[in-house]
Amino acid sequence: MPRVETLERPVKAPPRQRGRSSARGKKAPPPQDRLSQRTLFLRRVKRSLKPGLWILGATAVLVVGAELVRTLPGAKPHPAPPADAMLAAAPPAPAPVEQPGLLAEALAAIGFRIHHIEIHGAATIDPRALSAAVDVKAGDPTFGMSLARIQQRVDALGPVRDATVERILPGTLVVDITERDVYAIWQTIQNGQPIFQLIDKNGDVIADQNAAAAKRRQPSLLLLSGADAPQQASTLIPELKAQPSVYAHVAAAERVDGLRWNLILKNHTVVKLPDGDEAAALAQLTKLQASMQLLDRPVEAIDLRQPGRLVVLPYTLPPPPPPPGKAPVKRQEGQ
């Protein structure tokens, strides 16, 4: 029999898969760690706080804006009641001290504090009285005050005609003051003592002012006397200023019986003006001064009370002294 030889066929290797080889060539990514519960919680809280922070910021802006609008120096405070009503009423309770709110304190903590206080126009006001009226010091919260109340207290000071109070962020307080113009000095008698007070053009007394200091600042201020002198000054003084040569000699003016004026000159001569039509009498006096220097002459009085007539009263001469070497004869008692 023929010999049968068994030939072993080589076993073919399975075809190589490209996908597996490429996968083996690349490094597999590490498995991701799972976030902890704390991290997830903080992320949720952070996301939920974002709308709240926006709302809180918008609310703070609205509150600050409302506070600024409320305290703008536009509205004037209500006028104070008359003095008689204040005296008749019971003494008011002391005003409560202003306390800054929580928002003012919170804003102060981030820098909204008063660092500068600027006051303009206070030339004759007592600094202590003005400081007490403003009642703000460095370091106070910028929003811890009422501008309207500060303005009301400053307006109440005697020399103040008008005041404006404003704040400039972050920490400046500005007070602008317009003082009342001094028109004349009014002399009255109280308890036998002369009292000198300043008046304005309307005849109102300017309280808390030093008349002597005002006279030093304005030497041309006229001294007035008489019950109704302040109310009549706005008529006399312009007529005097219209006659400069006469006005330069006048030191004071006295209101007589509520009807007319006496002018006291610097050389103590008394000029008696008529009841009404002072302008014509002063014009006549100007002509006399130009022609004969009447106001410079040592006379006791110049009477202009009668229209078209001038009466000059000279000083009474003292008796002549005795001749030298002769002593005056003394009369003995009983003669």
From TrEMBL:
Keywords tagged on the record: Cell cycle, Cell division, Cell inner membrane, Cell membrane, Membrane, Transmembrane, Transmembrane helix
A GO CC annotation given for this chain: membrane
Protein localization: Membrane
InterPro entries named among the record's database cross-references: Cell_div_FtsQ/DivIB_C (IPR005548), FtsQ (IPR026579), FtsQ_C_sf (IPR045335), POTRA (IPR034746), POTRA_FtsQ_type (IPR013685)
Biased composition (Basic and acidic residues): 1-11
Biased composition (Basic residues): 15-27
Disordered: region residues: 1-37, 316-335
PANTHER family recorded: CELL DIVISION PROTEIN FTSQ
Name of the featured protein: Cell division protein FtsQ
